[in-house]
Amino acid sequence: TGYGHxxxxxxxxxxxxxxYSVIGIPFTLLxxxxxxxxxxxxxxxxxxxxxxxxxxxxxxxxxxIHAIVLGFITVSFFFLIPAAVFSVLExxxxxxESFYFCFISLSTIGLGDYVPGEGYNQKFRELYKIxxxxxxxxxxxxxxxxxETFCELHELKKFRKLFYVKxxxxxxxxxxxxxxxxxxxxxxxxxxxxxxxxKANEPFxxxxxxxxxxxxxxx
Length: 219
Hints:
Helix Hairpins, 75% helix, mainly alpha, disordered C terminus, 0% strand, 7 helices, 219 residues
């Protein structure tokens, strides 16, 4: 997220931060991708398939309703409820500022203008920081699951196709014609080689000269 309230000051600390980030960020992305791909099977695909097969509802309608319900649950449990908790635990934060912190953090913007647990009179500060870390990790996974669920909607896939680069049909036809010509030429070459092989395998027969045939007839 990168709030910027804690930064390395020494040259060794800055060098370690660069090396650690180069190694840690790809592994973090791989971890999040693996976790989201496994969660979405149980949270999105199987429930949609269950209602589609068991109750006979349209798969597209079930997917839309499921995405809306999942989005509402995620907003409630990772934005509204945490915002209410932060507004109580943080002395100078109201509900809007707490909700703003949740959105800025889970969207990975991380401006750093609001950082929880930085007050001098904060009770159980270490435990509070660990709880915030777990909240950010779980919230980020939930956000990715919701985004992946919406990306699998049929209507959104059709909308995304509007921005795809379309291939020129004439170029496709040219490629097809070239492919056909190559295939025809290869077939003709193969047929010619097969005929040559058949001629080579035939027994050699000596043809009699016409003069010898005439002399035999005269005799």
